[in-house]
Amino acid sequence: MAKEIVNRVANSILKTIDLEVLYPKGNRTAFDISPWLENGMVLREKDFREAVSTHLWERYTNQYVSIHCSTEAIIPAWAFMLVSTKLIPYAKKTVIGSQQTLETILFTEILSDLDISEYQNAPVIIKGCANKPIPSAAFGMLISKLQPIAKSIMYGEACSFVPLYKK
């Protein structure tokens, strides 16, 4: 007589948080201003402003856009800000910085609004594997938010986890 297979993970009191589920949908675009610089290094204000004014900003509608310069040019802050003013009416979000900075800011906003009351005094697993670019900082923010209320915090999967914290 065969024993009934019981899914102990499904029946456990463990609560799982998967940051990939919280990942905001939408295209990400890295907007590089270096093509608008002379030799990729020198910002000529008149030429730069002309490039900004004639660019088709509508193509960034509903996108998450990071604004950066891929060369080692020294760029005044106003140049990034000027580009940002053109993107704001179209993009979901604009950030001056790298794609990593963009993802970190998105997760900062998401996690600051996340209701974690269901994790009160519960053992929590933060899911580790993701197909989306979850920034490391997001895991740190989540731990900071969970540690004061969770019974324990683990990282990984229910069948194979690393313990991080226990009350």
Notes on the structure:
The protein is built from 6 helices and 7 strands; from the N terminus they run H-E-H-E-H-E-H-E-H-E-H-E-E. The model has no long low-confidence stretch (mean pLDDT 93). It is an alpha/beta fold and 167 residues long. The protein has a 4-stranded mixed beta sheet with strand order 1-5-6-7, covered by helices on one side. Strands 2-3-4 form a 3-stranded parallel beta sheet, with helices on both faces. The protein folds into 2 domains: 8-24 and 116-166, no CATH class; 28-91, no CATH class. The protein has helices at 8-11, 19-22, 45-54, 77-87, 99-113, 136-146, and strands spanning 15-17, 28-32, 64-68, 93-96, 123-127, 152-157, 160-166.
Show the helix and strand layout.
Elements (H helix, E strand, L loop, with lengths): L7 H4 L3 E3 L1 H4 L5 E5 L12 H10 L9 E5 L8 H11 L5 E4 L2 H15 L9 E5 L8 H11 L5 E6 L2 E7 L1
Parallel strand pairs: 1-5, 2-3, 3-4, 5-6
Antiparallel strand pairs: 6-7
Helix pairs in contact: 3-4, 5-6
